[in-house]
């Protein structure tokens, strides 16, 4: 549990308004709810808030088990980003206690997603993602959007494109109800999967539109998460549109390889390296 009173007292002591504290991080409404102990924002959002106040996480977390759970969830996020699903599941297994419905949804999403790619048991994944939708009771939040998007992924992997489209086509409208700046990691995760969907459907214009939006968003938030995968998809789109590795396509391929190396995304390093070797931009 987060000590909202501690955050409120520190903010007032520093002479900072709720709006100023929220600027560039979240909404004023979220700060208000946080100070009333009515919400616990994601770990990255909370970290930015307390850093602006000159506090440490230990200063505002009342329950150490809750703090430990959030740290494990954040670590599992990073493993999932790099497709290290065994490590993600191992990390999730260390969690003893989940503090609220949001942490429960976060945990179930990561576990379902990791097991899906580890075992390719898509039937089990359908159950898990639908369970998240039921848990959230039809409310539109980041986890309902994630579950909807991943249901599309499941059907895309099963080559049931009509069913995949049913879910993917809902996602852009659902995102309009979310403050994307509050969920940088998840927003880029969703866009990564949306662009893959539009690429496979050969809707290159729509794919390019989202890729441009994602790149701008990533640059604005100074984050490298998923950018290697997004650059790789951009390279494929340009290649397939023009039927060859154009200068721009190679540029995105090289950027994808560079960011993959930086984030240690071994799967993407392998994919980009194979193409770059083939076209003579990397030594064999």
Overall description:
- With 284 residues, the chain is mainly alpha-helical.
- Among the domains are: 4-60, lambda repressor-like DNA-binding domains (434 Repressor (Amino-terminal Domain), Orthogonal Bundle); 179-284, Serine Threonine Protein Phosphatase 5, Tetratricopeptide repeat (Alpha Horseshoe).
- Helices cover 73% and strands 0% of the residues.
- The protein has 17 helices and no strands.
- The protein has helices at 4-14, 18-22, 28-35, 43-52, 57-60, 64-81, 85-92, 101-119, 122-135, 142-157, 161-168, 171-175, 184-200, 204-220, 227-242, 247-263, 266-278.
- Helix 7 (85-92) runs antiparallel to helix 8 and helix 8 packs antiparallel against helix 9.
- It is globular and about 60 Å long.
- It starts with a helix and ends in a 6-residue tail after the last helix.
- The relative contact order is 0.07.
- The mean pLDDT is 91.
C-alpha-based Rg, rounded: 20 Å
Q: pLDDT under 50 segments (min length 5)?
A: none
What is the general shape?
Answer: globular
Distance between the termini: 53 Å
Assigned CATH class of the domain at 179-284:
Mainly Alpha
> Could you say what the CATH topology of the domain at 179-284 is called?
Serine Threonine Protein Phosphatase 5, Tetratricopeptide repeat
Helicity range of the residues?
Answer: over 70%
Structural class: mainly alpha
Proper CATH architecture of the domain at 179-284: Alpha Horseshoe
The amount of beta strand, in percent, is under 5%
- Along the chain, the helix and strand elements come as HHHHHHHHHHHHHHHHH
How many DSSP-defined strands? 0
